[in-house]
């Protein structure tokens, strides 16, 4: 069976950046399971999965606009450190800012913290090594729940 809308797909992957650094991998874990067309993986990878079948291995290079987006300079904010109360703010810290999402501290200098509300992989070209392990029709329950049930998916 070839991957098409509403296919339940399982695959192993290694994700690298432009320099070849490993960002994430399913090695040593269950294959990742998703429903094709359900927007559960980045759009560029979902596009490249279309039409593939179990056993296929390929490399997918995903430009930022079809991955986690381009860097949005409007999501960078310089905030005075006194706004953090007694907290010791350090580069690399992440925190939830209400409905505005997750922010990462990019820099602490001159009494201010530079906060970045972009996804950590925004602006990064993604290099996926993919091996598709299983393709089947998703069940009606899986489609209505929005996720794959069973190995690699959600268990009820």
What would you note in describing this structure?
With 156 residues, the chain is mainly beta. The protein folds into two domains: 7-68 and 122-145, Roll (Chitinase A, domain 3), CATH 3.10.50.40; 73-116, Thrombin, subunit H (Beta Barrel), CATH 2.40.10.330. The protein is 8% helix and 37% strand. The chain has two helices and nine strands. The strands form two sheets. Strands 1, 2, 3, 4 and 9 form a five-stranded antiparallel sheet that branches. Strands 5-8-7-6 form a four-stranded antiparallel sheet, with no helix packed on it. The protein is elongated.
Q: Can you lay out the helices and strands and say which pair or pack?
A:
Layout: E1 7-16, E2 22-25, E3 32-35, H1 43-49, E4 57-62, E5 76-80, E6 94-96, E7 102-109, E8 112-116, E9 126-137, H2 140-145
Antiparallel strand pairs: 1-2, 1-3, 1-9, 4-9, 5-8, 6-7, 7-8
């Amino acid at each position: 069976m070839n991957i098409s809308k509403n296919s339940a797909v399982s695959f192993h992957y290694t994700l690298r950046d432009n320099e070849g650094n490993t960002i994430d991998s399913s090695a040593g874990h269950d294959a990742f399971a998703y429903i094709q067309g359900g927007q559960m993986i980045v759009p560029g990878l979902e596009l490249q999965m279309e039409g593939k079948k179990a056993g296929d291995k390929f490399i997918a290079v995903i430009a930022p606009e079809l991955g986690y987006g381009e860097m949005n300079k409007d999501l960078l904010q310089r905030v005075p450190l006194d706004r953090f109360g007694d907290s010791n703010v350090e580069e690399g810290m992440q925190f939830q800012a209400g409905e505005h999402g997750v922010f990462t501290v990019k820099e602490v200098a001159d009494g201010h913290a530079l906060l970045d509300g972009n996804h950590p992989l925004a602006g990064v070209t993604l290099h996926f090594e993919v091996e598709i392990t299983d393709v089947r029709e998703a069940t009606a329950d899986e489609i209505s729940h929005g996720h794959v049930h069973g190995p690699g998916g959600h268990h009820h």
